[in-house]
Amino acid sequence: MTEQTSSATPMIKATAVNKHFGDLHVLKDINFEVPRGQVVVVLGPSGSGKSTLCRAINRLEPIDSGTIEVDGQPLPAEGRALAQLRADVGMVFQSFNLFAHKTILDNITLAPMKVRKQDKATARKTAMELLERVGIANQANKYPAQLSGGQQQRAAIARALAMKPKVMMFDEPTSALDPEMVQEVLDVMTTLAREGMTMFVVTHEMGFARKAANRVMFMADGEIVEDTTPDDFFTNPKSARAKDFLGKILTH
Amino acid sequence: MFDFLDKPLYAEYGGILGAFWVTIQLTFFSAIGSLIWGTVLAAMRVGPVPIMRWFATAYVNIVRNVPLTVIIVGSSVVLADQLLWTLGGSDTREISFRLAVLGFTLYTSCFVCESLRSGINTVPIGQAEAARALGLTFFQVLRIVVLPQAFRSVVAPLASVLIALTKNTTVTAAIAGIEAAALMAAMIERESDKVLLVFGIFAVGFVILTLPMGMFLGWVAKKVSVKR
């Protein structure tokens, strides 16, 4: 019975979330749940608040009102409890954000050793397995600046996975990549989705949304305008804003 | 020509080498002190606690704008003469030395703090965010991700601070006759026929100390720079 209750707890639950940047109302009364194992893709034009929403979920952006729960636990205020919660929420950024003064391997072993208190050997073993999985094991001892953008982003995904997170957040993971490197990153993400990882992905990659997502949330002007299956969204958008958005991106 | 250097008059300074040795010691201990206190100040200035930010900002802005001579003489008059603090020193010489190190540390740490703060600004904010997102605490982020990169990018500016500190130690002459500048003053008084030579010796002495420092730290700066 306990297992049933815990699997019924949504992985992410946002209730009446509001956020302002000065006068700009970037998140307007946001409500949604992400069940365990679901892959949610958030689409929407620039400035629609999707990145802010993604960052709000592990409190890199504090919200003004409302509640966000991760695995049934409300986000704590700044401090040790928040750090512990963040350790369970993997995050991949647009600009990779690898630690420039550490090798790829050290980037990945850092948090497992410092936060999860793993010993060095265990952390290295896991790190090498993850690097193998994302296809850059041969780059382990290089520094981030020596890798291509696609390789850096795959290393960043490995770094997040090393913490064995309950959920992975992706904030436009391919937007800073050269076109020929987008696919290698999406492939890693698609595999991850197939393996049952709960994922919250802000992206402009429609192909990924169609192929890997269970659900599409379309945001515009700080609101969730549509929340449906990828098929339904792409073939039968209901709102004018979604139609307009799809019209702009799917024509070429 | 250099016979006067060996006069017993100057023996209390330990001769020219002894005097410069004290200069080196003053510089060394003050540098260590300023590096530690300056780092603490910088951490406070970028930290999340408003009262600490306020304190560090006020400290830096007040102390770096007070002339060093006022700080050194002030600490000697107020701390030692009025409050009778000996800082654990047993004789005048030792007390003066420790007071001077304290004064230089309080003063130079302002410049270390500001250099370091500019170095912290060179570390992309995204790296700190990524570290926080992995579950590291504020101090872990600072210690493991931000400061190591900040230090590497400010080795060259810190070299300038260190060179300035080395030369600033001459202000010690205002409270005690223990280091190179005090010996120079004594020699100028007594060797009026060799004033130029005396100036020359001390000028060269300081250049011999500081030039290799600058060159060495310049090399270190290149060696440790973080590729982006």
Account of the 3D structure:
The complex is a heterodimer of chains A (252) and B (228). The termini of chain A are far apart. By secondary structure, chain A is an alpha/beta fold. Chain A has helices at 2-8, 50-56, 80-87, 104-114, 120-133, 149-161, 179-194, 206-212, 230-235, 240-250, and strands at residues 12-21, 24-34, 39-43, 65-70, 73-74, 89-92, 167-171, 198-202, 215-220, 223-228. The longest helix of chain A has 16 residues, at 179-194. In chain A, helix 4 crosses helix 5 and helix 5 (120-133) crosses helix 6 (149-161). Chain A contains ten helices and ten strands. Chain A has a six-stranded mixed sheet with strand order 6-7-8-3-9-10, with helices on both faces. Chain A has a four-stranded antiparallel sheet with strand order 2-1-4-5, with helices on one face. Chain B has helices spanning 15-46, 50-63, 68-82, 92-122, 125-133, 138-153, 155-168, 180-190, 195-224. The longest helix of chain B has 32 residues, at 15-46. Chain B has a single domain (15-224), classed as MetI-like (MetI-like fold, Orthogonal Bundle). Chain B is globular, with a radius of gyration of 21 Å. Chain B contains nine helices and no strands. In chain B, helix 4 (92-122) runs antiparallel to helix 7 and helix 5 runs antiparallel to helix 6 (138-153). Chain B is mainly α and 228 residues long. The A-B interface holds A 58, 60, 78, 80, 83-91, 93, 95-101, 110-111, 114-115, 143, 145-146, 156, 159-160, 163 and B 48, 124, 126-127, 129-137, 140, 144-145, 148-149, 152, 226-228.
